[in-house]
Amino acid sequence: MGPGWTVSDGVWEHVPQNKRRKRDVPYPKYINYTYRAMSGLSSLQIAADAPISMTALDTSCDHTWKCLPKEIRQQLIIPPPNGPALWSLKDAVRADMYQKMSLQIYSDSTAKRYRFYEDLMKKQWVVWPIWVEDEWGMDYVTICWHALATAGAPKSFSRIAGFAIIDPRRHPNPNLKGKHITLNARSTRIEEQLRRFLVNGGYDVANMVRYDVRCSPMRIGEASSGERCFANVKELCSNICDWYYGGMNDERIVFTNLSRWVQPFQQRVEMTGINAWVLMASFEYNARLAVEALMPGERTEVTANGAKRLVYAYDLAAPFEEPAISAQDFLLTATPGFQAPKAAGANSNAPATPPGQGITCKTTL
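Above: the chain sequence. Below: its structure as tokens.
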């Protein structure tokens, strides 16, 4: 940090840097949380419109879980974000990951498997953010499943009853009806890979039912899948609360379409606050967060739209225009001026052009 003004509220006497002693500098008590929250906070501050880091999302989701009622925490686990190896398009990459998992086995009296499975099977509900990289893009996708107890083992939830794969990305090109449809090819592939992951851990997937759950779609060219994933996690937690306190009878109360309104900037600000708060807490609140002031008109290097560039300070503030509420079908609609090519007998649900080719148009929710 360079020289500058120090603004103090007067609670503590300021000690000049050249006169500080070791006892004047706080040391983190929970150093693991310190590094995670510091990394997450830093990535959220310097990225305007770029995918958020897994650390930032993990810290935010972990805090959300800790704020739930005790009864819900006993039913639910939110694992750290995972990917992209388990969900890769390449068989060799996935096989290598399973090989690594087989080298870290947790043993008990009944089974030998990767320790992560043991943590998952202790809970009925799993809400899992994953990072996916494929031909459609690089996005956070939310997986949610409900498991039932095994006969003779009431504390082992290894029979999958229902699951959902919630993807905010839509097809880059509109179909003949002018709609950017859901990426069925991606969700089908993730479903197959999820089944393999569950079977590898000893889950029973014979009666697993898939629910079609949609969330507010991400605009074409946007990089807000992480913010939307965080919003999905919070809403699913709320649905699980309703399920639990409503008698735990019908899982469909959880597997319903999520909110049509998501403001990505609001979610990013909330995540920034959570990471900042956890960072202070890891020092037992013997720390303050500093705000770096920039001279008016000064430009600085930040990450925006997935690339480094020079921007003005206000570019990191909230956008002037709020996002529109999503359509009833949770799909993106092309602009009114869109004209699909005429094709006799063509499938109206198929994209008008292959991915990355042909039509370029603006989209609205």
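Confidence is low (pLDDT under 50) at residues 356-365.
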